[in-house]
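#struct-queue
[09:14] JT: dropping the first one here, sequence first, then the structure tokens:
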Amino acid sequence: MKAMILAAGQGTRVQPLTYDLPKPMIPILGKPVMEYLVEHLAKYGVDEIMVNVSYLHQKIEEYFGEGQRFGVQIGYSFEGYMQDGKVVPQPLGSAGGLKKIQEFGGFFDDTTIVLCGDALIDLDIKSALFEHRQKGALASVITKEVPWDKVSGYGVVVADDSGRIQSFQEKPKQEEARSNFASTGIYILEPEAIDLIPSGVQFDIGADLFPLLVEKGLPFYAQNRFFNWIDIGKVSDYWAVLQRVMMGEVAEMEVPGKQIRDGLWVGLNTRIEWQGTRVVGPVYIGSGCHIEPGCEIIGPAWIGHGSHLCAGSKVIRSVLFEYTRVAVGVSFEEVIVCSNYCVSRDGEMRHVSDAAQPQWSDARDGK
């Protein structure tokens, strides 16, 4: 079995996190989301992985290289072009990216699992592959049952009793929904399904290829599976994911660092001045951080490496990216602070310059 990780999108719904990072590189517990996917594939013996890249592609390629340190082989397919010495992203769509790879070198000569590069999963790939082959499927979609009052946030799959797919509904109103089984963006495809994708055009798996399979009456099935699927679709999702992970609600994801107190983990060479300081876990404070006296940190909270909390500042159920300096007496509650931007859990964004006096800054600026 081979794998394809979709990583070419710009991640506009999670800006500003993606101003400087491609979405698959957004960190969870200090590790890019895509790294968890690569490790999960390797766990099931899937060691040949292609990744389509476009926006900020070099950050993905520089981090993962050719995959040696993960025990896999990773190849890349760039979607875009150079203009005046600058990279211009030009994504081909999820299916179009598959077609480009196939036409170039014929990589997809075996059953292939396709994954979005921005979700955490613990899918039993072996069982999913067994069901796919048992049914003689040309394509399978992994689905997950969601509450009826949440269906409007998903693309839902309508299937008969055998699991054969009849149609799709993209984010239907609750009263119009014919199913509450959401597509997770995880697909199993045979090479013959990829052959149906037209050349040289933007083409999407869900919006274009799958309706084509239904129209042609080809063996196309949904698999409803019980597994963790944590999608980082919006900033609010990212905030919620970090809260769940820090609370220990996601299996096999452990807080890094050394636990020095109940609910408090720290990285190397971190300096905490305990006079008047209060920490209520779960809290992670990264390496090289400085916590001045009188600070308050209420978890779940993640403070990235190299950060500096000035005296009397408060960080409550928040995420600070690396090298964040919080000014004296400033309080952050249920926010993500990323470089020059602060985003509330609901997605409200403000720039560092919006306040009369800066509330945060780069801890590396020496001021």
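[09:21] JT: and here's the second one, same format:
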Amino acid sequence: MGIIKLIDDSLLPESIRDMVASLDPAEQGRFWGVGFTGRKTYDCPKFDVTPDEKLISNGNSSVVLGYDRPHSRGSGFGGKGATQCSSMDLVVGRLGYQAKSEDSLGREKLVNPNFKKDAARIYLSQKAAVDDVKYFGLPAGTVGNVGTDRPGSTIALKADTLRFVARENIKLVTRTDKKNSQGGECGTSFQGQYGIDLIAMNDDSDMQPMVKGNNLVACLKEMSKQINKLRDSLLTVLDYQRNLTQGLITHTHFSPFFGSPTSPDFTTLMPKGIEVLVNTALNVEIPMMIEDTMDSTGFVTKYLSSPGGMRSSRYILSKYNNTN
């Protein structure tokens, strides 16, 4: 986040700005409302309230009780004259950092809801297409999309940062009822639409399912067992190969001279065989035995086990958070 001025006098019309600059510091403080001394609302645009809306406002904070309206008067289900689409829009900071009470020509600035620029909002609607790009510009994700062809009631929160604070716990629970607020069936034929998407950077191009921790631990433990079995099998094969190599390097033939045995091949086979035996021992067998001694149980204990509830700092399961 960039550096933000505590008091931004660029929001004032030029004539007013020059007047304020001529005041002494105490008078400037009173002008800006320092210490809640009655500030001027040069940073507060006027909301374009319709006859069907009730506006409760103070400065640039407002609550609008009306009908589904994401931007202009004709937008949303309220603009279409739809039934059962009441809404409540709680907003602070309309137009965000661009908020002014007057435009460059000194005319009163009249604004609509702006789900992109308004600083912070809690939006409640009885019927809305909240996932439609005309609302918050959200990506589709993988769970059920609430669009114009499948509207629903919604509560949407938007600000620079959100904090959900609980003294005990937070639960995100979906598909609690058999019917939604529009009377539609919450069926079970496609359960994916009742899931929870976590989308960072407003980018759903690489959405993937979450892993279930207990199943992952069971899978990794089974893999560890299979790897140990494979290691044992490989050591057995190496033992067989060592015996074969030893037999080959000491191998002799019977000569045609009275059937006496020949000497082993000291020039090629024996040196090469000894090299193979040494390299196999140093580079394969010994490292495997050391690794087996150090890691076969250490890996499981460090990452996959919590004996008596005592968890290693590297235990892969969360101590607090769970998902289905």
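[09:30] RK: nice, looked through the second one.
[09:31] RK: Residues 41-182 form one domain.
[09:31] JT: good to know. The chain has a mean pLDDT of 82.
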